[in-house]
Amino acid sequence: MAISFSRLHSACSHSLVAVLSPLLLLLQMPATLAQAPDNKPVRIGVPTAVQLQVGRDTITAIKMAVDEVNKKGGILGRKVEYVVADETENPETGISAIRKLLANEKVDVLIGGYTSGVTLAQMPHISAAKTIYLGVGAASPSVTNKVKTDFDNYKYVFRVGPINSTHQARALVDYVANFVIGELGYRNIAIIGENAKWVQDLVPLLSKGAKEVGAEVKLTELFDTQTSDFSPLLAKVKSSGAHYMIVIVSHGSSDILAKQWHDAQVPIPYGGVDVKSMDGDFFKRIGGKSISQVTVNFAVRTPLTKKTLPFFDEFKRQSPNYPVYTAFFAYDAVLLYADAVKRAGSLDTDKIIKELEKTRHEGVAGEISFDEQHDLQTGKGKYNMLFVQWQDKGERVVIYPKELRNGNFILPPWMKK
Amino acid sequence: MEILIHGAVSSAIYAMLAVGFTLIFGVARVLNLAHGSFYALGAYGTYMATALLGWSLLPAALMAIVQVALLGVVIEKIFIRPLRHSQLGVLMITLAISLVIEQALFLIFGSEYRNVPAFIQSKVSIGGIDIAGQRLLVVAVAVLAIGALYLFIQWSRLGSAILAISQDAEAAKYMGIPSDRIFALVMAISAGLAALAGVLAGPFLSVQPTMHLLPIMKAFAIVIVGGLGSIPGSIVAAMMLGYAETIVAYTISTSWTEIVSVLATLLMLVFRPAGIFGKRAAF
Amino acid sequence: MRGLHQLDRSSAVAGTAALGILAIVPVIFPGNYLMGVLTVAAIYGIWAVSWDFMCGLTGRENFGHALFIGVGAYAAGYMNVQIGWGPWWSLPIGMLLSALFALLLGFPTLRLRGPYFALAMLSAAVIMQRLMLIFWEHTGGEEGIQDITPLIRNHLHYYWFVLVLLGVITFVLSWLARSRWGLILRAIRGDEATCLAAGIPITRYKIISLVISAALAALGGALYAHYQLQVSPQLFSIVTSITIITMVYVGGMGSIYGPVGGALLLTLLAEGLRDVGEWRLMVYSVLLIMIVFFLPNGFIAPLWQKLRATLRGR
User: Fold this and answer.
1) Domain A40-163+304-368, what fold?
2) End-to-end CA, chain C
3) Which ipTM value was assigned to this complex?
4) Which end of chain B is more exposed for a tag (fewer CB within 10 A), N or C?
């Protein structure tokens, strides 16, 4: 009969695929068996969003740091290598990337990260593999909360950067109190942010804190990360009577928000945490439409520490971009890890963790140290949030905190009286 | 008032996308999942010509549209025609093509949003509402383009040929109408319209490699609601959707807009699958 | 007609042998990574087979299969994390919930043909995805639900568990497909009117098939949730549905066992291409075009039909 398929087909098909597939994967297994155990290189796994600038800059920074460490003799006399895996912004791909780095590439430490949701999804798998993870991009406090609530399983996780959302909220409240109200005189504010975990953590704190310092929060709204048309939202902000708009966005389309805000000539200046507008070419690529926008940055090219200028100069040699925030932390992470291992005297994970906890490392823009939750501390002499404004011709000027100000605040061109 | 204007803008873009989609289906029974890619390529083509080659806007836009139209013809000839007997086959291959184009855009241009310059930079004030001039341009051009298309189909000889094939392909062939050439022409028009939408909407909507997904899903939805193969149906449905979304966005919140269009589709399918103007019942 | 009722003894033996080989692979080539990929591939296999049973046979392509998968997965996540029940409960609950959805959706949509049914199911899946985002306080929004407890901590044992399930499901569905049930489904694809005239209660068959398909997809979803230890709205997306349809296509639509091969092949391909870096998805899509173009009847099932014919010819 024409339609009498038999199980033989499935058997053959299964066995053929079963035989071919492991061969496919075996071909990629690294040939580390050839090297003697003493000279095995120290391998850094880099899970990051390769197709985004935060990812590319993470990789460039790590390369820079690894080269530096190797020039000085490596870690405990061993060469340092790094291998990248694309975690995208999707938790499923993120988990698969971590699995590849841990099980296949057998890395000694993980440095990377960007989307808090992806990092959170990866954490159980990282914990199961008992490998140290130094985060450089995810801001949600939930990442380090686990260190407190389940130390034995999650002691491997450290956040080298960025400053977590709670601290960010506090810094924003300071900005509102001292600058928006204090210097600009605007009491009515609107808060809009993308509907992602780190924002969900941040906005309630910001809202409450702002009210406590005398602001009137006229509108709070979380928009879908995929939003491509902000006109309804901008219209709402305008009709709410707000005089300043605070934005909290990382994955959402900062480009479109800026363009649409500019094209509709919304008479409300805006600023806040806007990751994509940290990109060096942001101003140019949207035709200058982000003029007068204020963005948070963790470092700019001024001598905040001894390492700031050399870092920026070297980065410029390696990449045409102005580095985004993950670059500073990735660079610092590699160096402070190398130091911790040196102090520990071995690659024993628990010893390294103890040394990491004692870290006092001079980073690109401040001193790095960790609190009991393995989270980055902020404060005097440490990493802080700088409020930087886009001005004419794409110049970036620090307008807050006052001590680091190097220029005057400007209003959007259509609001100039 | 704002709702009126913004709704018109959304409807215009959707209409241009939907009409092209329904046209190629009505005539060739092809569900072209790469239709969204034509939209994307229109925007990217303009970006490339203006940003990288330094052309001025109008010739860049025209060239992009023509190129996409040609690409549509090529795709139809090479990939779609051999598989026309299987609707699923056409679906799969146009889908795969859209993925290839998306990845190519990723690799060439990167994942960041790109800037397509607008034809009209200034702001216009209507009834106290500020609106970017470019958005109004979209409405104007859409009306012109679709109007021209409709006139073309109703009054020209080629137009009649198109109508003939869409009603009965076999009979048309017997009458000596060169169906293959007509398919190519219709594909070119369809792709060109989508590219035009991309060129016009690019300045104020997002231009990034995955920009083809939402438009194709919306176009699909609109075309079903309006009735597969019916141009007036698509236009009406496009307006319904455009306004429904805008109303929801302004009154409730932007998160609910997507659901509106999808829910409308689902309900329409459940209660009246032929769509508003569909001639062909779905069962 | 009688031949369809029985399954060759040799087929049963061969099928078990194939599963055995798959089970031994991670023991011969140890490594969590390979096993992880194979586990995911096996789960995709369950999804592909469940799709093929309903859609491959009746010719009604369901573009929203992700809906049932997501329901199973989120049920697992929600019950486990938000409500705190033990992980083994998610399997039956997910399946029940999904079956319910299938019933609710099936009645109004199954009378639609071709692209209309596809679109209706797709719409349902998209709506669910949106709802997960809108009610983010309960469902974790974009990041979904994390920290789901694994069903079986030992990866190897879990892999075997999934493999056994896959085997049983494929076996049972293959048997059903070649029985009178499958014949009726195929007849429905051909000509519904004739079936009705012959007095067959086609609505009942269609609905029950959809329910079975949905329940099994949900089972896969729950298994997936307890393996990845997290669920996110991406599970509901059209990408998931289309990936599965592609696997069925490559495997050979309507064959039930072919999609298993398709799932394995494509999952391994997607992972194996990681080294190509940025070009990975591009290569994948181009390969897809080539497969659809040159092998419109799929790859695995027809290949082995030929093999079998040549073997017989000897």
Assistant:
1) Rossmann fold (3.40.50)
2) 26
3) 0.74
4) N
